[in-house]
Each structure stands twice: as C-alpha cells, then as structure tokens.
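Onboarding guide, step 5: your first structure request.
Type a short instruction followed by the sequence, for example:

Predict the 3D structure of this protein.
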Amino acid sequence: MFLSALRVAPVVLVDGFAAATWKIERKKDVATLTVVPFAKMTPATKAEIEKEGTALVKFVEPEAAKVVIQI
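The system replies with structure tokens like these:
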C-alpha cells in the first residue's frame, strides 16, 4: 500500500505476510493505535497485536497516560 509521495504505509506482519495497516495518534494524554486489518483476524492474532501494539505505543509515546488499541 502506498501513500502520497510514494511513502509506504506501516503494516502489521502476521506469519511474515502483511495483514493490516496501523497508525498512532495522540490527543492530550491518550495515545491510540488504530489497526485496520485486510481480512478477518483470529482472536489469538488480535490478542498478539494488542500485546505488541501496547509495547509499540509506550515506546513511541512514552509520556501518554493512557494507551488505547483499536482493531
């Protein structure tokens, strides 16, 4: 998936394949990771994405008081 100016959208890999795109937005003290899957995901895959996504958001936005994961 390409964005404007030939930038590549950040993707979630599942078993080595692109399975979703993601973005992080921060509003005040809340950092939100939004994951948009390409197809239906299993509950186990969603749980793993939430776990890894929480760690990513805490790394990218360390001063956010709250982390929200939306899949």
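Each response can be followed by summary notes, for example: Residues 36 and 46 are 11 Å apart (CA to CA).
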